[in-house]
Structures are given as C-alpha cells and as structure tokens.
Amino acid sequence: MPRGDKSKYTDKQERKADHIAESYEQRGVPEKEAERRAWATVNKDDGGGKKPGGSGRGKDTGHPAAHEGGRKGGAAAAARPAAARSASAKKAAATRKRNAAQHAH
C-alpha cells in the first residue's frame, strides 16, 4: 500500500477529515495544508485506518486530539481585563436568577 493511500479508512474517518479540513480552510489555511493536518488529526485520534487490515480496528479512541481545546480556550478569557470578566459574571448570575424565578413551580 503506497503512502497516502486512504483505502483503509472508514467512511466516518473520511467525513471527520473533511470536516476538520473545512474548519482549517475557513481559518485561512491553504487547502493542501488543511488536508494534511486533517488526516494527521484523524491518525492521532484513531491510530490509522479502521477497516480490516488497518491497525487498531474497533478500539475506543478516547479522541486525544479533541482534548487540546481546553488548553487553548482559557487564553481568550485571560486576555480580557478583570472588570470585563466580572461584568460578564454578574450578568450571567442575574440571568440565572431571573430564569430560576420564572421556572419556580
């Protein structure tokens, strides 16, 4: 099987790669690079193709690649001034209080 042959990947893995590549392209990554990263992500998640003869068929993956989001997510909040975070928190608390009052039986 030559390098880059995708015959051992399942339909689900291919959909996953398409989805990831699309997301990269929307963020301005060139098409070929987006494709390369997408397949690298699928491989990291699934350990290669899952069809018979592809390594690791039928194993639970744990989706390691998807766990990176938490690390990246905090940066945006950390960059905001404390006053802005505090205002958001107060607004959220008020909303929760309002909703609780409406839904009280």
Short description:
The protein contains 4 helices and no strands. It has 105 residues and is mainly α.
Structural features, described:
The chain has a domain at 11-56 and 79-103. It has four helices and no strands. The protein has helices at residues 11-26, 31-46, 69-79, 82-103. The chain is elongated, with a radius of gyration of 21 Å. It starts with 10 loop residues before the first helix and ends with a helix. The model has no long low-confidence stretch (mean pLDDT 83).
What's the topology here?
Layout: H1 11-26, H2 31-46, H3 69-79, H4 82-103
List the main descriptive attributes of the protein structure presented here.
mainly alpha
Structural class: mainly alpha
In total, how many beta strands?
0
- Helix content percent band: 55-70%
Mean pLDDT: 83
Instruction: Using the alpha-carbon principal axes, give the shape.
Output: elongated
Largest sheet: none
